[in-house]
Design a protein that fits this description.
Elements: H1 4-33, H2 39-59, H3 71-92, H4 97-104, H5 107-119, H6 125-144, H7 148-151, H8 155-185, H9 191-212, H10 219-245, H11 248-251, H12 257-270, H13 276-298, H14 308-311
Helix pairs in contact: 1-10, 1-12, 2-3, 2-9, 2-10, 3-8, 3-9, 4-8, 4-12, 5-8, 5-13, 6-13
Length: 312
Amino acid sequence: MAKSAPTDAIVEGVLWMTVSALTVAVLSAMAKFLEDTQSSQMLFFQMAVSTMVFGAFLLRQGRQALKTNHIILHLVRGLIVFGAWYVDFVAIDDIPLMDAALLSNSVPLWAPLIAWAWLRQRPPLPLWGGILLGTAGVVLVLQSSRGPEVQLTAAVGQQTVIGGTLLALLSGILGAVGFVAVGILGRTDSALLMAFSSSLIATVAATPYALREWQTPDPLSMAVLIGIGLVFAAGSYASTLAVRQAPAAIVTPVCYASVVFTMLIDLVFWNDPPDAMGLMGAALVIVGGTLAIVIGQRRPPATPSSASLTAA
């Protein structure tokens, strides 16, 4: 009986991270549904609504919860979050949801390299195996986007798909930079403060672009736009609960479940099944990312914990 509580906590943590992964897939599907809405407008609603949600919870904790000694780093990270989500929304319009979800969730592959370049934290030798596996998977996904069904389209269409794939990859790399930044901020600031600050800064950054490209949404589109913000906030909260309940090395790989969810959504609603090469690439990225997380968690706490994903 003494061991039942930790086991229950792990199961609960995995379930909460699964919920978070599902919200990522749903958010991506909602963004793809709004294909006629500008990416800047979607991002504005996502961040503005989530800012209000996070802010409401933060205000309940009093002014003390708003204190930080890293204002500049919060600002930089907020702009990175803006960039990562913006290019992800642009990519979703041009490539299958599964590819976008896979590449934008490849943060665990790039975070060790970013930490090495930024913080001079050299990745342990075994970690390179996971990074190389994941990189090979990314290459296969990129090749899949150049497949026969793409080659039969016009040259402009090919460039659109390849460009969308590269943008989704850029989203993952920017997410890794934000991941490392949260590793620094997390030493002194709460996850809720980090989520609030990044959403607020991203809202401010998205505002001029949204106003310039503003299209008054119809009632259905407005409901979906508000829903994007609520789903984003719910996913962030779910991932927070996950990493509080269970070890990071166990729950973080579950974030790749979003790839499976998006694949199913893509198949059901857009009739866009992945090909064999794309599936093989997805498997390599998931295995490589999982190895990177597990090996990274076994070393001293030099790299950011998976709790960083909450506010990223």
